[in-house]
Amino acid sequence: MEMNEKIAMIKAATGEVKADLVLKNASYVNVYTEELLQGDIAIAQGRVVGIGDYDGEAVLDMTGKIVCPGFIDAHIHLESSLVAPAEFVKAVVPHGTTTVIADPHEIANVMGTDGIEYMLQATEGLPVDVKLMMPSCVPATPLDESGAVLTVADIEPFYDRPNVMGLAEMMNAYGVTHTDKDVLAKLVAAQAHNRPIDGHAPGLTGKALNAYVAAGIYSDHECSELDEAMEKIRLGQYIQIREGTAARNLEALAPLIQRGYENRTMFCTDDKHPNDLLEKGHIDYIIKEAIHKYGVDPIIAVKTAGHTAARYFKMTDRGAIAPGYLADMVIIDNFDDFNIEKVLKCGKVVYDAGCVSPVKVPEIAAALEHKALHTFHMAPISKDDLMSEEALGCIGVLPGSIVTKDMGMREAIDLKEDVLKIAVIERHKNTGHIGLGYLQGYGLKQGAVATSISHDSHNIIVVGCSEEDMVFAVNRLLENQGGIVVVNQGQVTGEIMLEIAGLMSNRSLEEINECLEQAKEVAYSQGVNEGVDPFMSLSFMSLPVIPEIKLTTKGIVKVQ
Amino acid sequence: MEMNEKIAMIKAATGEVKADLVLKNASYVNVYTEELLQGDIAIAQGRVVGIGDYDGEAVLDMTGKIVCPGFIDAHIHLESSLVAPAEFVKAVVPHGTTTVIADPHEIANVMGTDGIEYMLQATEGLPVDVKLMMPSCVPATPLDESGAVLTVADIEPFYDRPNVMGLAEMMNAYGVTHTDKDVLAKLVAAQAHNRPIDGHAPGLTGKALNAYVAAGIYSDHECSELDEAMEKIRLGQYIQIREGTAARNLEALAPLIQRGYENRTMFCTDDKHPNDLLEKGHIDYIIKEAIHKYGVDPIIAVKTAGHTAARYFKMTDRGAIAPGYLADMVIIDNFDDFNIEKVLKCGKVVYDAGCVSPVKVPEIAAALEHKALHTFHMAPISKDDLMSEEALGCIGVLPGSIVTKDMGMREAIDLKEDVLKIAVIERHKNTGHIGLGYLQGYGLKQGAVATSISHDSHNIIVVGCSEEDMVFAVNRLLENQGGIVVVNQGQVTGEIMLEIAGLMSNRSLEEINECLEQAKEVAYSQGVNEGVDPFMSLSFMSLPVIPEIKLTTKGIVKVQ
User: Fold this and answer.
1) CA distance A213 to chain B (A)
2) Hey, are the CB atoms on A52 and B210 less than 8 Å from each other?
């Protein structure tokens, strides 16, 4: 903070000059004493400067309203929203989100440090603060061909950037507990910079968990059972209670949202898909569920939604309504209805009565933007590329799961038996690598579906009833520089263009959602089985760390 | 942490290799869940690596014992113990102290940045971690002549030193709330380095308090009333509950040591004099008082004694017994008796069954040591220096208080009316400045008393029944290069040598205490009134910020 800002704040606090804005007669959540207190909240220089009896250049009457500190998502991959950060932000501002801690793991798998740089530039000056954690596991596994490898030397310089917080979810628990030096070097570096290191260790317990924590990893967002969370809390981890689109742990972990644990728990979403964001909301949805479905004390729910994350990430300027803190605030009608009426970011009203204030989309350096919009480094494919003279492994899709079943070997597409061809096409480095196999249980009866969202390397996955339509879908996706394409007999029947790294769009969340829902409907109409998400299920077919059979650019992989 | 340490920790945690030390069958205080839990605590590389079922190269049976995280004093001036840091540490190790946050305000007033450098070197490698806060107010007031002036430019480079935490108690609340730029520059700099800023604002309330907090000051150790503490907690300040030698706030603030506030409160002593340290102990004394006198839950008391301070000062490596944390632990028999049996610092037993392990006294750079041992830059005085032809103001001593009363003007010593002469002699810069006055209510009937402990500038204060004895006492103190001297008719009757900056001794706390008690007894036998501390009361006679009349090197000052 500059001297002149500090002077202006102090003068407004003492009453020597009027505050810039006063929230008059506010009831507000005091996270320190866990009380609902009354007072005028005075704001100057974008920060709260005093609570008491204040006059302001502008005044908002808060009679009958409740003011909460802005909400914080403690762990999210923004890419999961399929839109650029500015569009994501427009969508979550009405839900009271004022800070998100984002792990740009997906774009880093495509673009490496350029992807991180892109996210830093694309989040600059938005009305939601986007703080980045450095992706710790790019690529997720050496079995796959990603667009980049991030070493500790790549990561470390980013700790000098003001919006970079620490090291993101360390998924390689095996590497940690088995003292893999490349893995540990990333932990050592983060600690040398005094940065938090996020965990990701579903089901880890006992001595392995002790070792993982001792290595310096003090959070976890993968708990799906209360006992698991309690073991982790007792060993010193903070628990990021996740309630996102794919993974939902609030029901299991709601007992943690009470006095005694409220300083060790926070909320996160991990992944939020467009329709989920639009229909349910964001952190506000978790608060409401906690209060209404699980009987959580509203004050504790609100505190969990911001204060603890701020403390854990050492953001001493937010997570409370107190002098000196950023004036990030959410104004609701009451705890029962929890309707968000206004949202303030740094003392500016950014959402009011259904309207989001205009968001200035950050400018990206031209060369970087060009790179981000051209991430498909491959030639168009032809039918020959998808042919095999040998029998190939067949992956069985299990509805509602990313785990698969080994269905033995197949020699050809067989629509009667629901056997489709599937291919994973390397798209980062023009290697020409194409992995081939068969897929059963997906249900498609006509055409083909291709996507450039394929965890975690984001090569192209295509599945089809004929090699011809598969070729057409892939080459169309290549033309679009990313996204999802549904085709039928040489016609595009549905598509979503995700031109930023093949993962995100510059269009609005509403538009993308509309395209996505339309394409999904078409995919179902072309035969995709009910119970199978036509695109999300595909996007996990190439992640060779999930059992029991997957397809990479190098072919079928059996996973233990 | 180095890679090889991390590998060794992980291997011990997984059980691949034996731990260095295991505390077998321990009951331990889990600060996260506020439970007493059971398990073997495995230690490697000086840190806890796992809790569960472990084997170690060495094993300590903890059956029937309770293991607590090491205690932290959140704010102390080590100089108040009158001994060098190594000697202080030897005295507090048996009390379970493993970290102290020290403000070297006194030595900085004498030696400036050299004094801070001295304390950094003198605390290196001790079995209690001494972390420094940078003195924010040197000199305490421009009315006085101290040995140094610390500007923001002097302070800022110290933030690069590993044991420097932040900015110490900002006593100049008026300067903060009235936007004094020199004061604010120190706050701006500490914040730019992301460092905590300690407060010191007794009785500050309302808008002035809001302004003080908004300026970035998030702790206070000066609360003497519960309401005052509650107002400060609600505005976001951490409360350092002080129970020291001179100021004792535990009784008033004990209601804060309970669930709901335990993450916002910590313990500190501020000042601990030798006899108090020896008779009562340190942070353990506060815990015991809290439990036994005020009915505090022992687990909450133990948590308050370490965890919150660690969080506030962003020391993520201590304040809990958890994997990855420093193995700083206190082993007690039970909560009722709270007898400390063993103390571990970084996994080493540093206190066991009444014995402190040998402490290696840190080496001080020769030139710096020479400077610290020669801080009296003045010539011997003579009787003429203490004579005045005019009447002088007379200070009235109030028993048990540092506040004084204006007793009008006097022209000469008058033992029948208990009127003594008092002088303050500038000793830092050879200015020859000597302030003269009279003192009533002290009681001395024979001889003189001189001290180089005189807040905050630590010039020489001398009071006497005759100018001859005053001269003798001052010149003796000069020969000693500091301390306290009691004389009678040209004979030394009691003395304490404080050769380090005139404030501390390299001898043991027991020795210094013995000298001090003997000298005190002599002072009383020479007439000092019961109810007046012969040395401490003198040491505040020159602090011109306490009402209503004081004496500086420039003469009598009336204080509003």
Assistant:
1) 6
2) yes
**Inter-chain contact B13–A230, Cβ cutoff 8 Å?**
no
Q: Kindly list the residues from chain A whose CB atom is less than 8 angstroms away from the CB atom of residue B191.
A: 1
- Cross-chain Cβ contact B188/A11 below 8 Å: no
- Nearest-angstrom CA–CA distance, B416 and A555: 107
- Give me the percent of chain B exceeding a pLDDT of 70: 100
CA B314 to CA B194: how far, in whole Å?
10
Residues of A in contact with B152 (CB under 8 A): none
Residue with tokens 């990561």: A155
Chain A CB contacts of B176 under 8 Å are: 10
Beta A555-559 vs A548-552: how paired, if at all?
antiparallel
Tell me whether residue A62 is exposed, middle or buried, using C-beta atoms within 10 angstroms of its C-beta: 0 to 12, 13 to 18, 19 or more. buried
Contacts of A6 in chain B (CB under 8 A): 179, 184, 187-188, 215-216
Nearest residue in chain A measured CA to CA from B173: A10
Contact B102, B78 (CB under 8 A): yes
Q: Note the pTM of the prediction, 2 decimals.
A: 0.96
CA distances from A262 to A301, A312, B60, B257, B258 (A): 8, 12, 35, 17, 15
| Pairwise CA distance, residues A84 & A503, whole Å | 9
pLDDT bin (cut points 50, 70, 90) of residue B400 is: confident
DSSP B70: P
In chain A, which residues have their Cβ closer than 8 Å to the Cβ of B13?
177, 207, 210-211, 214
Minimal CA separation from B212 to chain A, in Å: 7
pLDDT for residue B345 is more than 90: yes
Q: What letters, b where the CB count within 10 A reaches 16 and e where it falls short, cover B496-507?
A: bbbbbbbbbbbb
Q: Is the distance from CB of B234 to CB of A37 less than 8 angstroms? A: yes
Q: Does the distance separating the beta carbons of B314 and A6 come in below 8 Å?
A: no
Non-local CB neighbours of A237 within 8 Å, separated by 6+ positions: A199, A213, A217, A218, A219, A220
Kindly determine whether residue B236 and residue A263, on different chains, have CB atoms separated by under 8 Å. no
Q: What are A186-218's pLDDT values in tens digits? A: 999 999 999 999 999 999 999 999 999 999 999
In whole angstroms, what is the distance from residue A120 CA to residue A162 CA? Answer: 10
Are the beta carbons of B207 and A49 separated by less than 8 Å? no
- The partner residue sitting opposite B13, judged by closest CB among A185, A211, A261, is A211
What's the pLDDT at A488?
A: 98
* Range with the poorest average pLDDT among A210-219, A230-239, A544-553: A544-553
Please spell the DSSP secondary structure of A91-119, one letter per residue.
HHGGGTEEEEEE--HHHHHHHTHHHHHHH
Confidence of residue A544 (pLDDT cuts 50, 70, 90): confident
**pLDDT tens digits, residue range B236-273?**
999 999 999 989 999 999 999 999 999 999 999 999 99
Phi then psi for residue B116, to 5 deg, are: -65, -45
Amino acid at B484: I
Looking at every residue in chain A, the average pLDDT score rounds to 97
Contact B324 A215 (CB under 8 A): yes
CA distance A179 to chain B (A): 6
- Which residue among A11, A261, A322 sits closest to B179, beta carbon to beta carbon? A11
Instruction: Determine the residue of chain B that is closest to A207 in CA distance.
Output: B14
Among the partner-chain residues A3, A37, A261, the one whose CB lies closest to the CB of B234 is: A37
> Could you tell me the sign of the dihedral formed by the alpha carbons of B148, B149, B153, B156, in that order?
positive
The SS3 assignment for B255 reads: helix
Distance from CA of A109 to the nearest CA of B (A): 26
Q: What ipTM describes this predicted complex?
A: 0.95
Return the structure tokens found at A17: 């000059």
pLDDT of residue A56: 98
